[in-house]
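I am hoping you can look over what I have pasted underneath with an eye to the fold:
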Amino acid sequence: MSRLTLQWFNLTKREGQDLCLKIPVADVYAGIIDRAFPALHHIPWRQGTHGTCYTYIKHIAAEEQDAVNHFLDILQNLRCLTITPHLAPHFRGELDEAYALDFNFQQNVFPMAYTEIGTLEHHAKEFQNPQAVTEIARRLADVIRRHPTLARADMIAAMPPRPSSTFHLPAHLVNQVGTNLGRPVSLNLSKAEHSKLRTLPMDQKLATLAGVFTLGEPVQHKCVLVIDDLYQSGVSAWSLAKFLKAQGAREVYALACVKSWSDTDNV
């Protein structure tokens, strides 16, 4: 499964016991929680049934417990994106975490209908609607502000456009995200001109993206958050993460407006 939503969590404390946290999809969400709260004192995650896991958290203050609970609420409203089988042979964990605000289209609705975020993304990208851009940027900034891991990013950057692009939504979003967060958001990152990836087979996509990125400033030991409008196959996000890691970035995260239901560019 490459597109996950935290369907539930159980955070309880019984008399005389430590606080117990139980979550599904252990191989994904346990790591996300540990990265968000590196100082959280808990026993090693233990395997439960049906892919769940649990841990007991020790010596947690009420304020920290509220922060954990708040973060779990955030994860229930984000789409967590993991590596797909068609990307897995080519990458080795270069993208530490990836999210989308929502899918672009509603599931199992015919004829196809946009989600709320999908409608905003469509209006912002296709019609360059300033109100849609502003609203998406506000929501992206809110996620970054409330997500402990993303909030710690040293640099926030837009997925770079092809030079021939006349309107690049991620760049406009990042500028407004910076305004909303009250912090600088810039990275001297660019991309050489290349053919559209949609019609290329996977090997050609990877070969095309392998040499297109250029970095004009150091990112050694930095955490970089990349903002994009659409996460489809993930090949661009993972290729950029691989490039940034090769340049010395410590961590690379991605946050997209929408995720397509398809995991390939050709469908």
The helical segments are 26-36, 62-75, 116-126, 130-146, 148-151, 169-181, 202-210, 235-246. The first strand starts at residue 3 and ends at 4. The mean pLDDT is 95. Residues 134 and 246 are 33 Å apart (CA to CA).
